[in-house]
Amino acid sequence: MRVRTHFDVVVVGAGIVGLAHAYHALQQGMTVAVVDHADAVAGASVQNFGHACISAQSGDALTYAQAGRRHWLDLSQKAGFWSAETGTHCLARHDDEFAVLQQFVDLHGPERARLLDRSETLDRLPVSGDGVVGGMYMPDDLQVDPRTAAPSIARWLEMSGVHFHWRTAATSFEPGVVHTTRGRLAADTVFVTVNHDIDRLFPDYAEDGGLVRCRLHMMRAELPLKFALSTPLFTGWSLLRYSGFADLPGAPLLAERLRAEFPDYVELDLHQMYTPQPDGSILIGDIHFRDITAPPFQSEAGFEVLLRETRAIFGVDRIDVTERWQGLYSSAPGSEFLLATPTPGVHIVTVTTGIGMTTSMGLAETNIARILEDPDSRALAQVASAQVPVTVADPTLRASGTRR
Fold first, then answer.
1. Stretch among 29-33, 39-43, 115-119 having the lowest mean pLDDT
2. Nearest residue to 338 via CA among 234, 217, 193
3. Could you give all domains of the chain from N- to C-terminal order, each with its CATH number?
């Protein structure tokens, strides 16, 4: 049997960003191959909250997130994984947090977010009433099952004609050719979507962009709540992590107060958020540590903070933790995407914060459209797309994003 070795598009990396590029190329009638060193979808694409946090983005990230929303819903039907149009709630337990929510609603209007008073917030959320000022609801956000969404998409793509080369590593590139550990693949266009491992294939681009690995602590738990948590839940810490809140006048004041009250939480780079799962469990996270090589050791201090704050926010004494894990994704200061063309026809596409699930579908659609519009050039602009950094009082409290 003759094995196909030439494709219109070769995608290196079977994470959600790579799968999204394969999906949009397939939708345009292109022949597609995906190369990955693992034997299945793994890494950041299954280690996350499964939360497409659309409304809290800005700039290109917001454009990609909004454009990708319908593709997530469409793929959940085609590939058979769970999805839900839940929206997201934000909880304010301090006046400065509520001020930021008010400013967000005033800026964007009721179509993007709705402000909630204290009574409405407590009616909607199974949280302790201690200190609750109010909240906000963002209706456009989605949820998928993080354990099954990306693997299901890979299976559906393979059944639909995409060629997957598992346990195969890309080693080098030249115009029209991908060299792999199992031989050469010819391709008109190549997308390199290997997330934090881009420094192993194109170290100069990673170093120039300041790319490092971000390690995060997460857990799954069962809680005896007053009633079910029906949507992802953000806290005041979340307002310091997303670019959509970046230029709001209340953000620096909020950051200053949290820095003063919780210096140990700032040191841990805490993002306190909760995402309910179809089985009734809740994903709890997260704290962050950044370095070129992320150490494998997890301090229990981070988990203790997450558990302590979970007890306080929900007013529960018992938390039954069923899983703990260490997520890993790429991070770069002051940017959300690293896009570059190191060789004609070879395009680096890396999301450099924790919004890969949120932006992948729209980002890939845009890239494939550019190829179709100018097939002869086969080159995306060499841009490290610096998105709006959060203007807060402390550099450790900046928008680094979280998984979605």
1. 39-43
2. 193
3. 6-50+63-79+146-209+334-373 (3.50.50.60)
